Amino acid sequence: MSHINLHPVAGVYLGTTAAKIKKSGTEDFVVLQFVEEAITVATFTQNAFCAAPVTLAKQNLLAVTHQHNIRALVINSGNANAGTGKQGMDDAMQTCSLLADELGCDANQVLPFSTGVIGENLPMDKIEMAMPMAVANLAATHWKEASEGILTTDLVAKTYSKVIDIEGHTVTLTGCSKGSGMIHPNMATMLGFVATDAKITQACLQTIMTSAINQSFNRITVDGDTSTNDACTLTATQQADMPVIDSVDSAAFKQFSAAMHECMTDLAQKIIRDGEGATKFVSIEVESAHTVEEALQVANTVALSPLVKTALFASDPNWGRILAAVGRSGVESLNVDTLQIYLGDVLLVENGGRASSYTEEAGQAVMNETDITIRIVLNRGKVKETVWTTDFSYDYVKINAEYRS
Asked: Do 48 and 169 meet the contact criterion of CB atoms below 8 Å apart?
C-alpha cells in the first residue's frame, strides 16, 4: 500500500517526532494544529473500560462545543494509557496542558489520543521532551509522517486524499487511520483522523460523520475484540472558497456526504487489508434481510467464525462452516430452505443443502483468490448490508502472542 499524493488541507498543520515510547525508536508522537474557525466532531469506542484519553477527549469536546473550537489533537503510539486509573487521567490532562502551553490555547481545546499496550502508565518525561519537538515540526505537508507516527502492529500506513468539486468550488479531503488487530464494529479498535477545508455547520458535519462511520469503520471486523482506546475525528477548517453547507437537503450536502463516505470506507478497508497476519480481504454481503440489525447479525457471525476464518486462510472451500455460522446467527424464524449462499459467483447452498450445480473445483477457484466475497441471500426482506473481514493465519496468533515482547 504505497503512499498516495496527500493534499494539504488549509488550516491544518501536523508535527511528528520520536518520543521513544515505542521500543522501535520510530516516530510515535503526533500533533495536529487547527485554525481557530475549525470545527471538529468525533466518535469514540463504546468499550466500558475506555482509556483515559478517550474519557478526556469526550469531556473536552463537550466543554468547548458552545464556547470555542478544538484547536489541536495530540496522539501517541506505543502506550494506550488504558487501565491506568486516576494516574492515567492526570497524565492525559497534563499532555493536553503541555500542548496548550506550546500553542497558546486552553487545555480543553486539545483532544488526546493514545494507542498501544494497555495497563502501563504514560512515560510523561518522554512526552514532555517530545512536545516542543513535535510543535517545532508543524507543517501543512506532514500527513505522511503523521500517518506513520500513529501506527502500532500495522504493517503499512493508511491514507486517503482527494480534491473534489462541490458546485463549482474546490474542496480538499485528507485523512489517515491506524488499525490492524483488535478490530470489530462498535466504533472501536482503530484511530482515524480526517480533515477538510469545507465550509459547513457543526450539525451538518456531525450528521455526515455519523452516517459515514456507520457504513465504514462500523462495518469492519478482524477478530471481534473491541478496543479500549479508539476513535475517529473529522475536522472542517472552513477555509474553502464556497458557501456554507448548512442544510441536509442541499445538493452540496449530498455531494460532500458522498465524498466523506468514500474517504471513510477507503480508510476502513485499508485497515482490513492490513489486518494482523491477513492474507485475504473478505466481503460478507447479506441480501434480502428483514432489518439492518438482522443483516449485520448474520454477516458478523460469519465474519467472526474462527472456523470460517481458518478455512479462508487455508483456501479450503469448506462451505459447511459458512452454512453453520448462518444457522447459529440467531435470526428469528430463519427458513433455511429458502435462502441461498454464494462463494463469489458460485452457488453453494439452496433448498436447505448443497446446491446441485456446485462443484468442489468451482469453490476452490474462488477460495484461491486474495479478494473473496461470501454472499448470503436470506429472501426475507429488502435490506442489504456488507461487512469486511480477514482470514486467521498462523501470523495472527504469532503477532498477538508476541505483542508485548
From this structure: no
Cβ atoms of residues 145 and 32 within 8 Å = no
Architecture in CATH of 12-273 = 4-Layer Sandwich (3.60)
Cite the active site residues: 189
Whole-angstrom distance, CA of residue 241 vs CA of residue 244: 9
Tell me, rounded to whole angstroms, the distance of Cα 30 from its chain centroid: 18
- C-alpha distances in angstroms, 354 versus 81, 320, 349? 50, 9, 5
pLDDT of residue 67: 62
DSSP 8-state symbol, 76: E
Residue 188, pLDDT > 50, answer no
Cβ pair 347, 340 in contact under 8 A: yes
Spell out the domain ranges in the chain.
12-273, 281-401
Domain 281-401 belongs to what topology? Ubiquitin-like (UB roll) (3.10.20)
Give the model confidence (pLDDT) of 106-120 as tens digits: 999 999 999 988 899
Residue 107 is classified by DSSP as G
